[in-house]
Amino acid sequence: MVSIRVLFLVVMAWLLAGCASTVPDPVRSPPDETPSLAQVRDDPGGHDGESVRWGGEIVEVRNEADATWLEIVERPLRSGGQPRDADRSEGRFLARVEGFLEPTLYAPGREFTVAGTLDGTVKGAIGEYGYTYPVVEVAAHHLWQERAEPRQVAPRPYYDPWYDPWCDHRWYRHPGSPYYYGPYRRPYW
Fold this sequence. Notes:
globular, 5 strands, CATH 2.40.50.140, alpha+beta, 5-stranded mixed beta barrel, single chain
């Protein structure tokens, strides 16, 4: 009887551990009244010190002696903080993270979400185009797993376009019947 109780407690602890989220709370839930990137770019100095939750796709990673700078192309976020796979953006921003981030893990093309406070702007360039980057002092961040490409499965050559795997046709006999012709549909002629 004791072993059943121990087994039950172990299974319940395992199930509850599966419900835990690894995404930090500031990244998962947006702050109240957060400005958009377009609003900050229109009024660069007017939003300093405000809390934001932005995310997108990493473009570049630069490690310095005490911090890591990430250039990120902004993307709209889902309710849980993950960037949407959308072809629209309000621009780019810089995220300053205290400490060292491994550039091979935080590689260009990876999805990244930050939560922190706005800390002015930095002038830079994209190619030869002059650009003003809003800077986010990062308090919490999350690197999202790479999305798997959906498999493109071609239909099997022996299925015709009108094949319905859920509906048995009256001329098609079941496997237990004496006149079963195999798993393929019989031709109409």
